[in-house]
Amino acid sequence: MKNDPAPRPPTEQVVALYDRACPLCRTEMHRLKAGDRYDRLRLVDIAAPDFDPAQWGFELEALRNALHVRGADGQWRIGVPGIAEAYRAVGLGWLTWPLRVPGAGRAAARAYRWIAPNRHRVSRWLGYREAGEEPAPRCDDGHCPTHY
């Protein structure tokens, strides 16, 4: 007999306004959504042609500079607190425990203020690909092809 947990009561969805055009952002948000067993996280792509920032009460430039997440309580959390809110929504809030270590949350927020506007460059540094981009060549045993 399988021991499934009881179904959870419906709750208001957490909404993440994210930049799907950013490889790092897209990968991380889609990874969270893939683990969203109770459909508590709604992803809204700010790079979509039909996206209207006025509908959400923000300027597009502000949305491009930081992740904006509306919690189930209706409150907006921007930047690192928004990331933590998205993780909590899908049941992975425990992974954000380092942010509660004294000073770590402030350090993360400072780092995020630089990373967010430079997210495409950071994506490339970390090996994330732009949509439609060819994968990097494989280098087996330290030998890389000289042409691709």
How would you characterize this protein structure?
With 148 residues, this protein is of the alpha+beta class. It has helices spanning 23-34, 60-65, 80-89, 104-115, 119-125, and strands spanning 14-18, 41-45, 68-70, 76-78. A four-stranded mixed β-sheet has the order 2-1-3-4, with helices on one face. Strand 1 (14-18), helix 1 and strand 2 (41-45) form a beta-alpha-beta unit. The radius of gyration is 18 Å and the shape is globular.
Keywords:
globular; four-stranded mixed beta sheet; 32% helix; alpha+beta; 148 residues
Which helices and strands occur, and which strands form pairs?
Layout: E1 14-18, H1 23-34, E2 41-45, H2 60-65, E3 68-70, E4 76-78, H3 80-89, H4 104-115, H5 119-125
Parallel strand pairs: 1-2
Antiparallel strand pairs: 1-3, 3-4
Rg calculated over all Cα atoms: 18 Å
Give helix and strand order, one letter per element, not per position. EHEHEEHHH
Estimated share of beta-strand residues: 5-15%
Mean pLDDT: 83
- The order of strands across the largest sheet is 2-1-3-4
Major sheet characteristics: 4 strands, mixed
| Helical content band | 25-40%
- Counting DSSP H or I runs of 4 or more residues, the number of helices is 5
Number of strands: 4
Unreliable stretches (pLDDT < 50, length at least 5) are 134-148
* Class from helix and strand fractions: alpha+beta
Please give the alpha-carbon distance between the first and last residues.
53 Å
The coarse overall form would be globular
* Multimerization status: single chain
Summed up:
The chain has 5 helices and 4 strands. 24% of the residues are buried.
